[in-house]
């Protein structure tokens, strides 16, 4: 059976191969003939025909120009005739002579040699005519004209005779070209027939071979293939054994036995998957490798399961000890999974809906932008997500600091689809870090203030001392009572200035030594109204308007003395440094820095339309001691310095926005 199938298939394929080789060989032969014919037409026949036609046209033109030379001489025709016989004819004849050497027809080459000889005779006669009538006065000599006319008549006859030879040569070339093209067409027709015959032969024998193969090989194999495909997708079907003795029958029966073994092993593997490591299983034979592998797998899984249980217990204990949990977030569905420790950090249980929206609810509002920016950057740069922020547990627990680390997974289009990472409760270490940073910040600021204060004290006291010493020297050298009286007045002025400086420095020292600052609830609007009342004279003098937009029920925890000092300084400066060409208008507002956050700072905003400050020049020294910017005689440079110290002593800060000629806005943060 197998031998018959093989022999018939071999014969069929041999016939197909022979037919293909023969048709291919004939195709190559026809293509070779066609290529050679095309090459002859391209390189030999067509160029020669074109040049012969050009030669015929040129000789007719020479005849015409020669006749013109004799009877109607003009410079333009004479010049063209010289070019035609000396240049055009020479080039064209040279090209045709070279092409004639490659012509396959000796008769054509011989015929062109005859034409070339006649052309040379014509050219010689033309040159004689040109020589006889080379000068204008030659036309006055009748004998020369008659001789030239006689030569011209001979030229006409020679050209006419040669034209017939050229015409006949052209016709011969065209006829031979048509014959070659007909041969090529005949060969192509034969090629089509051979190819068609080869195709039909291949189709016929292929059909016979396929019919035989389908009945004896394909159909039985298809049955086995369908069975194997079902097994491949997990569907185990039972097939009965058959009595066919060839290889296909053996394959069928082997598959039947294999399915029986698979069914038994599948049942055993199912028991292992359910965690039943004590299920019974019997090997088919000592060579049952799959069965042995299943038994080995059962032993390994049983041992690994015991190890995993112990490791999970230790990992859970370690996570609880370190307050660190893990999560998996599905971006497409918006859902997340979390470990037991993370659930404990978030204060959630099994009934809690684990969605992205719920996850964001835990993050305090002031950290929403930070977390969003970190996530956007991590996705854009394909880097790890890492952020520290505060969260609020679900069931009203104490707010805590967490460190979150995560890594995104991307699909084939580069879009982030999920995220895996850890979250650790770092409240204790974070609070210690914040406390250390605050202590360092306070120490650094106090050190800077001390250095600045010592510099100011040294500079200002030395300035007054030098001034007084100089005046005393002048007083000793005074010769009249008037000079002494004048210098004494100067000494009194310097003494008063020194006293004022010492008084100001004493206020600063007293303020810096106030370590225990009492904090009480303050009705902010009422404090602003009180400051406005104290400045009523200044307000009336400048016809100023102050809009107090702070709500009446707004209460802040602050030092009352500091608050009064801060409000008086900012409001008095707004009136003092107003523009003389417009009515001073001051607006006071107060709002939360983060409206959605429970512990957000308050922002006290004081805006005016006064002279403004050039921040590019004065930003760094704006709050410095004895720094003034508008040239007012009564400006001391102490107010903003003390105000900044008082605000910072209350754990606040000051921001400034200003444009020269438009006004200034101060934003004071209140904790």
From TrEMBL:
Residues 215-267 form the HAMP domain. It comes from Flavipsychrobacter stenotrophus. It is found in: Membrane. The chain crosses the membrane at residues 12-32, 191-210. SUPFAM superfamilies: ATPase domain of HSP90 chaperone/DNA topoisomerase II/histidine kinase (SSF55874), HAMP domain-like (SSF158472), PYP-like sensor domain (PAS domain) (SSF55785). Residues 385-438 form the PAC domain. This is histidine kinase. Its main location: membrane. It is an enzyme of class 2 (transferase).
